Amino acid sequence: MNGKTYAAIVHYMNWPSVLDTISDCLAEGIPEEFVILVDNGSPDGALGALTLLHPHIQIVQSEQGNIGYGAGVNLGVKHARDQGADRVLVLTHEVRTRRGLLNALSAALDIDPSVAVSAPLTYLKSDPEVVWSAGGDLSLRDCYPVARKEWSASPVDWVDGCCFLVRVRDHFNIGGMFEPYFLYLEEVDYFVRMRRSGRGVVLLAEAVAYQEPGSMGLYYAIRNRILLARRLSRRSLAVRIAIEHGAKGVWSWFIRDLRPSGRDRIRAVRDGWRLGVADETELRDRR
């Protein structure tokens, strides 16, 4: 295992289950002082108890409350970089790992310098025989990510953001995760950009993690697809998604019976478009 490896756990209101994730990091051989817990403003009072159980773990608290998954990852990787980390094992707060995961992920980076990210095959915690994600593909025709349900030797467009090992310099070379997503599709955007930069993203069958996926809601599903389409220069697709869901929203909210789903669609189209425009404006200003 070459280089100095830290762990960054993005946490929000998952006490005491996050203790299992921390224990797995320690079992992988990561020293307690190299484990960073990024807390997104959890109001459950868990941090005091955590410091008693693991006094050497580093706790980084968001000053703005819940800043979202991508911003939490960026905060954790930055904190690790500032202490000289070469690699960071990124995990979400519910993930469990099978022993040997870090050695397998590290070996992939040791063997091939062109690989920036290595990730495990992910199974359901509630049904450990069922594959939740073996990475996935992204269709540029509709900007809809499709998770694979079995390992394949063919390259993946993205891997699940619940657990992956990344070289710190590569994370910052592509600008880190795009934070305005807040929830859903930020890892797809991140890994697609990583691959477009010429760096490798690999999924390993011999590395195994377990997670229990949550829901993201209609609002983020629509808003973030519009944003992803615009960021991937698929403007016509973004327009089509906006028109489709805008029309459905108007029908549900104004014509039928004021259904909340209609309001969510309208908000998602409005906010997705605004974020996309702001992102494109910022990119033009940089040039």
Overall domain count? 2
Q: Radius of gyration in whole Å, from Cα?
A: 19 Å
- Number of DSSP-assigned strands: 11
The CATH architecture category of the largest domain equals Alpha-Beta Complex
Strand coverage percent = 15-25%
Description:
This protein has 287 residues and is α/β, with parallel strands linked by helices. It has two domains: 5-211, Spore Coat Polysaccharide Biosynthesis Protein SpsA, Chain A; 217-286. It contains nine helices and eleven strands. It has helices at residues 18-27, 46-53, 69-81, 101-111, 168-173, 186-196, 217-231, 235-257, 260-286; strands at residues 5-11, 35-39, 58-61, 87-92, 96-97, 115-124, 131-133, 136-139, 144-147, 163-167, 200-211. Strand 2 (35-39), helix 2 (46-53) and strand 3 (58-61) form a beta-alpha-beta unit. Mean pLDDT is 88; it is low at 283-287.
How would you summarize this macromolecular structure in one to three sentences?
This protein is an alpha/beta fold and 287 residues long. It folds into two domains: 5-211, Alpha-Beta Complex (Spore Coat Polysaccharide Biosynthesis Protein SpsA, Chain A); 217-286.
Annotation keywords:
2 domains, alpha/beta, Spore Coat Polysaccharide Biosynthesis Protein SpsA, Chain A, 287 residues, 22% strand, 11 strands, globular, nine-stranded mixed sheet
Q: How would you summarize the topology of this molecule?
A:
Elements: E1 5-11, H1 18-27, E2 35-39, H2 46-53, E3 58-61, H3 69-81, E4 87-92, E5 96-97, H4 101-111, E6 115-124, E7 131-133, E8 136-139, E9 144-147, E10 163-167, H5 168-173, H6 186-196, E11 200-211, H7 217-231, H8 235-257, H9 260-286
Parallel strand pairs: 1-2, 1-4, 2-3, 6-11
Antiparallel strand pairs: 4-10, 5-11, 6-7, 6-10, 8-9
